Amino acid sequence: MMMGMDGVREPVGGPGDRPMDGPGEAARDAGGQRGAFAPGVTGRPIWRLLLRGLGVYLPGWEAPAGAHQVVRQPAPGGRRAAPVWVGPPAFLDGEAGFGLHLPERRRGLEPDREIYVRGRESPSFGLVVAGPSAAIGTRVVDAAALVRFARRLTFEELLDAGDADSVPYAVRGARAVENVVFLDRAAGVGLCAEVEPTTRAARCPVYVRLGDPAERTVRAYGTALADR
What we know:
This protein is α+β, with helices and mostly antiparallel strands. The protein is 19% helix and 31% strand. It has 4 helices and 13 strands. The strands form 2 sheets. Strands 2-1-7-8-10-11-12-13-3 form a 9-stranded mixed sheet, sandwiched between helices. A 4-stranded antiparallel sheet has the order 4-5-6-9. A hairpin with a 4-residue loop joins β1 and β2 (9-10). α3 (143-158) packs antiparallel against α4 (166-175). Residues 4-34 have low confidence and may be disordered.
């Protein structure tokens, strides 16, 4: 289903919980500052897309007020720092931001998705996906893998097999995907990726932990990369 960023649906195409860590635990383990929030995260389109996705797929859950800051320290001597574990299955890896290391991958899974559009002259697409992380098809889910997956879903969503004229539209839509939110309620995690408009580099600046159904809480972690 495609929707405008104002929440109005656009007439386009067809469409065991894990307890959350205690307050600040994941951020503190990764070198974050307990109680501190990542600057600049909540003002970006990816944050607004995250809140929309939570409203669609986790209605009634407590939305995060901000993203707890996770600082990745640079390696000595200018060497590339190794990934930092934020708490299973998440890690923080340089300019790519957060990622997930999954125990398995599976083909053929079809998670739910909503497509959002920003702008009219040169529209950019945002995708909210809800389902098992294994559907992405790779055990290491980083920004590049998540964006590729979202673009494939967008292409499939916009393509009309009976209309050859839909192919270029579907290709343009897939290429215009700039923000992706993936929510895996069963695993209790979420990952948010964005594409930098100028360099077109993909990164995941936000990682999400979902509380169990009794708590209905959402905790977000944002990057503050010291080696940028």
